[in-house]
Write a structure and sequence with these properties.
By secondary structure, the protein is mostly helical. α7 packs parallel to α9. It contains nine helices and no strands. It is 67% helix and 0% strand. The chain has a single domain, classed as DhaL domain (Serine Threonine Protein Phosphatase 5, Tetratricopeptide repeat). The structure holds adenosine-5'-diphosphate and magnesium ion. Magnesium ion binds next to loops.
Length: 208
C-alpha cells in the first residue's frame, strides 16, 4: 500500500461521509457512557478538516495530515479533539517531506500516532478507549504489507465490538465504572470508521 496526496484526501473525505451519516449513532453511544457530544464533535472535526484540505493544493502528504491535526485541535472540544489532533500531528511529523508514502513509512507513522494518543490520554489497551481499536489495527499493518482491506475492516470492527466487554478506566466513561460494561466506546466507533475509510482507499489500490 502506497499513499499519495490524493489518497490521503480521499481517506479523510470517506471518513467524513461515514461520520456524518453515523453522527446520531455516535451521539447515542456517548449518551450511554458520556455526555452525548461525540457525534457532534466528530462531525464538526471531520467536516472542517475536509473543508480545509479541499481548498489546499498539496505536494506532501504530511501537510494534509498537519491541516487535519490543526483543525481537530482548534475546532473540536472534548477529549477527542486533542487526541485525534495529536494522532494526525504525529502522523504528519513521521512522514514529513515524503510523497508518496510507502507501506513501511505510513505504518510507522500510524504507530507514532497511536503512541501519541496513548501518551496524551495516558491510556493503554484494555481501558475502553480509541486505543483499543488503534492498537490492533497498527499491529495488523505491522505484520506485513499484504494486508487486505477486508482484514483491516474486520480487525477494526472486532476491536470496536470488544470494547463492550471492557470497564472504562479513562475519560468520562470511567465515571460509570462497571456500568460502562455492555456499551461500545464512542471513540472506538469513530476510530473504526476512520480505519474502514482507510481500507476503502486501500482497496481501490491508490485509484480512489
Ligand atoms: P469527551 O469525553 O470530552 O466528551 P468525546 O465524547 O468527543 O469527548 O470523546 C470521547 C472518546 O474519547 C472516548 O470514547 C474515548 O474513546 C476517547 N478518550 C477519552 N479519554 C481518553 C483518554 N484518556 N485516552 C484515550 N482516549 C480517550
Ligand atoms: Mg463526550
Amino acid at each position: 500500500m502506497e499513499l499519495t496526496v490524493q489518497d490521503s484526501i480521499y481517506w479523510i473525505k470517506f471518513a467524513n461521509e461515514r461520520i456524518q451519516s453515523e453522527k446520531e449513532y455516535l451521539t447515542s453511544l456517548d449518551q450511554a457512557i458520556g455526555d452525548s457530544d461525540h457525534g457532534i464533535n466528530m462531525a464538526r472535526g471531520f467536516q472542517q478538516s475536509v473543508n480545509k484540505i479541499s481548498d489546499g493544493s498539496y505536494v506532501h502528504v504530511s501537510d494534509v495530515f498537519k491541516d487535519v491535526a490543526m483543525t481537530m485541535m482548534s475546532k473540536v472540544g472534548g477529549a477527542s479533539g486533542p487526541l485525534y489532533g495529536t494522532a494526525f500531528l504525529r502522523l504528519s511529523s513521521a512522514v514529513k517531506e515524503k510523497n508518496p508514502l510507502d507501506h513501511k513509512v505510513f505504518v510507522e507513522g500510524l504507530e507514532d500516532a497511536l503512541n501519541g494518543i496513548k501518551q496524551r490520554g495516558k491510556a493503554n489497551k484494555g481501558e475502553k478507549t480509541m486505543v483499543d481499536v488503534w492498537e490492533p489495527v497498527v499491529t495488523l499493518l505491522n505484520k506485513n504489507n499484504e494486508v487486505t482491506a477486508e482484514e483491516i475492516v474486520n480487525t477494526a470492527k472486532e476491536a470496536m465490538e470488544h470494547t463492550k466487554k471492557l470497564v472504562a478506566t479513562k475519560g468520562r466513561a470511567s465515571y460509570f465504572k462497571e456500568k460502562s460494561i455492555g456499551h461500545i466506546d464512542p471513540g472506538s466507533a469513530s476510530s473504526f470508521y476512520l480505519f474502514e475509510s482507510l481500507a476503502k482507499v486501500w482497496k481501490s489500490g491508490g485509484q480512489a
